[in-house]
TrEMBL record:
Lineage: Bacteria, Pseudomonadati, Pseudomonadota, Betaproteobacteria, Burkholderiales
Protein source organism: Massilia norwichensis
Record domain Bacterial sugar transferase: where: 282-465
Protein name, UniProt field: TIGR03013 family PEP-CTERM/XrtA system glycosyltransferase
Subcellular location: Membrane
Keyword NADP: no
Pfam families membership: Bac_transf (PF02397)
Length: 470
């Protein structure tokens, strides 16, 4: 895994992205060269003064296609899927979305326009290049490309859970588990044949060298008595990567596990950036995104308001008290998606999947996130951010604080219209779901950055396109 702005990015995805950026840039130049060779002219473009300007056009084309492929989920890899039918089902819509984005770009900046003949060639060459790149990539990954050899210190329940996570076939990583080193007074939860019982004179570092290990994952629940801290330090000084279970879980799932989390890991670990620079960038990002989306979706919001009103003649908007940053309450505004008597008993209820209280218009709005758009007003007021943990009602917060460890940590940042938990976990209607979503929220609170905010917005677009709402 690579770490960019505190967020873990798979090396495999990073390499694939880098290769496809080169393919798309190359397609722009090859398409232009082929087109002008056909016309018997030297390389050059109408309305483009020089190759530097053409490079800007190629960058715009590449950015549009990469953004579209990301929004279609083409960088959320499934090695079992490979190049089968779903790949083509995503590639063609990605290029169509990219074409629409480029049309808007060329309208705003006509000097960047390729010309129809060049653009058609560029798209054809790019599609072929992306297909070949993916074919080579998946074939190479079958040969254990970028595989990492790891060793687990521990043989108990935590070691078993971490090893199962490492062996997931659809993981962005490819791991080769060398084995497990048992520690005293620990329950055996892994196969006995996978234990590495060396000679008494063997140290942890010598075993790692013997088995060509690149990383040691410390997966011991109880570190009292017999914990080889000096040997781990020796491994660290020898250049081996030493990772604790909490960090491994965070890296592989983009969550922070709470049931076995040590408070010291949160206190002394990195992240939790609340500096002035981060706060200023976050607020600027919120304002810019809110203005753009308000302008783009204003006609859609008018249609939504009309549809809500016509369906049952009830109120268009729904305001509800929610808990925000530092536990302060505020009123969130949404398009009403439930019947007016949704809580006629007066007691707050969890929203459920296929909830009978949801209207037909409301169901569509929830799937497409249209009901969330009025919350842009909350962003302007400063009660919410565009990206952050979902704000919850005080009634449920009081309950969840009692049963979910560290639940209040999510209130250290502003809540958001969309968030890491919403795009990763989706629908939730119980305390167990709240725990899973909290683990994603904690990851966001700890590792929040402008880079992660952009990724969440791209994933939100994917959720809207595939109507995989809560």
């Amino acid at each position: 895994m690579l770490r960019i702005s505190n967020h873990y990015v798979s090396k495999i995805v990073f390499v694939l992205l880098f290769v496809e950026v080169l393919v798309l840039l190359g397609a722009a130049y090859v398409g232009a060269a082929v087109r002008f060779m056909e016309l018997g002219q030297p390389l050059g473009l109408p309305n483009v003064e020089n190759l530097d300007h053409f490079f800007t056009s190629a960058i715009a084309f590449t950015a549009a296609i990469i953004f579209s492929m990301s929004a279609m989920g083409m960088y959320q890899l499934d090695f079992n899927e490979g190049l089968r039918h779903p790949f083509f089902m995503k590639l063609m819509p990605s290029f169509l979305m990219g074409f629409l984005i480029l049309t808007l770009v060329f309208y705003v900046a006509p000097d960047l326009y390729f010309g129809r003949g060049i653009l058609a060639l560029v798209f054809a060459i790019a599609a072929a290049g992306i297909f070949i790149a993916r074919m080579v990539f998946f074939k190479t990954s079958e040969l254990r490309f970028l595989e990492t050899r790891i060793l687990f210190l521990g043989s108990g329940p935590l070691a078993k859970e971490c090893s199962d996570l490492a062996l997931q076939s659809t993981s962005y990583h490819r791991y080769n588990i060398t084995g497990f080193i048992p520690t005293p007074n620990e329950e055996l939860c892994v196969p006995s044949e996978s234990l590495l019982n060396g000679r008494e004179s063997d140290t942890l570092a010598s075993l790692a060298r013997q088995y060509n290990v690149e990383e040691i994952v410390v997966s011991v629940q109880n570190r009292r008595g017999g914990f080889p801290i000096k040997e781990l330090l020796e491994c660290k000084l020898a250049g081996l990567k030493v990772t604790d279970a909490a960090t491994f879980f965070e890296r592989e799932t983009c969550q922070i596990r709470v049931d076995s989390l040590q408070p010291s890991w949160l206190v002394f670990g990195g992240g939790f950036d609340q500096s002035f620079v981060r706060t200023f960038m976050k607020r600027s990002f919120d304002i810019v995104c809110s203005v753009i989306i308000m302008l783009l979706t204003f006609p859609l919001m008018l249609l939504a308001a009309l549809a809500v009103k016509l369906e049952d003649r009830g109120p268009v908007f729904y305001s509800q008290e929610r808990v925000g940053k530092d536990g302060k309450t505020f009123f969130v505004h949404k398009f009403r998606s439930m019947r007016t008597d949704a809580e006629k008993g007066g007691k707050p209820q969890w929203a459920q999947q296929n909830d009978p209280r949801i209207t037909r218009v409301g169901n569509f709005m929830r799937k497409t996130r249209i009901d969330e758009l009025p919350q842009i007003l909350n962003v302007f007021k400063g009660d919410m951010s565009f990206v952050g943990p979902r704000p919850e009602r005080q009634y449920f917060v009081d309950q969840l604080i009692e049963v979910v460890p560290y639940y209040n940590v999510r209130h250290s940042v502003k809540p958001g219209i969309t968030g890491w938990a919403q795009v990763r976990y989706g629908y939730g209607s119980s305390a167990e779901d709240a725990l899973q979503k909290l683990q994603y929220d904690l990851y966001y609170v700890k590792n929040n950055s402008l880079f992660l905010d952009v990724l969440i917005l791209i994933d939100t677009l994917k959720v809207v396109l595939f109507r995989s709402g809560r």
